[in-house]
Amino acid sequence: MLFLLLFASLAQDLPEGPGKDAVLQICQDCHALDTVTMDNRTKEGWKKTIAKMGDRGAEGTDEQFEAIIVYLTKNFGRTDVNKAAAEEIASGLGFSAKEAEAIMEYRKKNGDFKSWRDLTKVEGLDAAKVEAKKDHIAVK
Ligand code: HEC
């Protein structure tokens, strides 16, 4: 009974969207869902992780794995501010086009960002807004 309640509350924590059912069906056989959701990854990172889970024995169709990659990238994704194009930075992190351009300019002038904190030095970016997004920012 307790297990069922826990299961129900965990299931509710996942945002709605295509791919959610596949995650619920496939990704909690071997570990809890919070193993999946505790750390955000880039799309490449999710692809690698899903492939690794396949090697470990996760079973599903190609369509399900593809849906899982898209779903996790959207909801538990990171954007690499050193590699992404301006549009990706804007859509992935919820910055305006102008803010994304400012990030690109800063990167061109100063080289790669070493930590999400460096983004707070970009002129025209609100430090609080950057900090709110820190779990979704990758610097690779
Ligand atoms: C056949 C068993 C199995 C299934 C099914 C499975 N995993 Fe895993 N997963 C593991 C093992 C083993 C580990 C490493 C030990 C741990 O963290 O519990 C792991 C760890 C992880 C980690 C932690 C980081 C890492 O790479 O070690 C993530 C993220 C993850 N799994 C995501 C998923 C996702 C997403 C799915 C659904 C597509 C999934 N797993 C399905 C076996 C599985």
Textual characterization of the structure:
It is a single chain. The chain has 140 residues and is mainly α. The protein folds into 2 domains: 16-75, Cytochrome c-like domain (Cytochrome Bc1 Complex, Chain D, domain 2); 80-138. The protein has 8 helices and 2 strands. The chain has helices at 2-13, 20-26, 33-37, 43-56, 62-75, 86-93, 97-110, 127-132; strands spanning 79-80, 137-138. A two-stranded parallel ribbon has the order 1-2. Helix 4 (43-56) crosses helix 5 and helix 6 crosses helix 7. The longest helix has 14 residues, at 43-56. The chain is elongated and about 50 Å long. It starts with a helix and ends with a strand. The mean pLDDT is 92. The protein binds heme C. Heme C binds at residues 26-27, 29-31, 35-36, 49-50, 52-53, 56-58, 68.
Count the E strands: 2
The helix fraction, in percent, is 55-70%
Work out the count of structural domains: 2
What's the CATH architecture name of the largest domain? Orthogonal Bundle
CATH topology of the largest domain: Cytochrome Bc1 Complex, Chain D, domain 2
- The CATH class of the largest domain turns out to be Mainly Alpha
Bound molecules: heme C
So how many helices? Answer: 8
Query: Separation of termini?
Result: 44 Å
Mean pLDDT: 92
Class per helix and strand makeup? mainly alpha
Beta-strand residue percentage: under 5%
Q: Please state the overall shape, judged from the principal axes of the Cα atoms.
A: elongated
Over all CA atoms, what is the radius of gyration?
Answer: 17 Å
- Poorly predicted sequence stretches spanning 5 or more consecutive residues: none
Major sheet summary line: 2 strands, parallel
Order of helices and strands: HHHHHEHHHE
**CATH superfamily annotation of the largest domain:** Cytochrome c-like domain
Largest beta sheet: what is the strand line-up? 1-2
